[in-house]
Amino acid sequence: MWLINAxxxxxxxxxxxxxxxxxxxxxxxxxxxxxxxxxxxxxxxFEISGVDLFGPVRVSLGIRGKQPLKMYIAVFxxxxxxxxxxxxxxxxxxxxxxxxxxxxxxxRGPLVKLYCDNATNFVGAARMLKERMDAFNAKxxxxxxxxxxxxxxVEFIPPRAPHIGAxxxxxxxxxxxxxxxxxxxxVLKEDELHTVLVDVxxxxxxxxxxxxxxxxxEGEVVTPAHLLVGRTLVSLPPESELPRxxxxxxxxxxxxxxxxIKQRFWRDWSRDYLLSLQQRGxxxxxxxxxxxxxxxxxxxxxxxxxWLTGIVEEAIPGADGKVRVAVIRTxxxxxxxxxxxxxxxxxx
Length: 348
What we know:
Elements: H1 6-16, H2 18-21, E1 48-60, E2 69-78, E3 84-89, H3 94-108, E4 113-116, H4 120-137, H5 141-150, E5 153-156, H6 166-183, E6 188-189, H7 190-205, H8 224-228, H9 251-277, E7 295-298, E8 308-317, E9 323-330, E10 333-338, E11 342-344
Parallel strand pairs: 1-4, 1-6, 4-5
Antiparallel strand pairs: 1-2, 2-3, 7-8, 7-11, 8-9, 9-10
Helix pairs in contact: 3-4, 6-7
């Protein structure tokens, strides 16, 4: 007896087998979403930022007989200009991160929104900041108005979804590579590490972000440093000329001239760089949305063939109506996961 299209029929039977599915589950995917609105606004640098930590880095105390300490590096990334800010964090506690965040705000200006992952120090710091703001709001009207003017929101990405925070994850990768190249196997002191971090920060903020055509008439390549200080940070300063008196321009006209230069940089930025980000390198096909009530398996790291099974309780759509995050109820509790961590179980 000869079965026509035997391979296709066997594959269809295996795909519908629940027992076989657990050995080779197929994770979900969805078309890549559009850039968030926070990436497209012409905000002040670091007004909307993302943050992450990497490390540890061994730091010497400079005392004979004392073991080096473990410290960590905080990476802040601006959503508007993609500029990078680096700072040292001595441990992973919430109090230490709040001190680092305070230094960042004092140097870069007040925040409006801060994105981060669900690390315990970030969650604890957000809770402590909320408690402090609630304490301010409970007092007189002056403190309440000050707290409202200087408050900011903290947005957490879904757990186990680093691709959603790819903006600061890529900055962490670049900073880590540059730092390892600069340090090698050396154990630096804290002031030496801070100097190296400033050098790494200058290199990252001077990287070209718009493809250069190679023509000498194109002018200088736009970098994050142009939106911070008006020029790149790692090149030599241009030769300065003696100031020439110019009585034809008033103070208002000079201010308008400076504003026009800034607008030109932002126009070049939004035309060349932001349009290049709209290109989808993967996840280019639309698929059907995940619906509530579907039975799925949750992919967990370092767990082989023992994935949790649960029911989709809530499907969270994005701005374009596509579901990329879902809330799953399992016997162990309720989980919020990206759909790239979910595999629907064939029960039909």
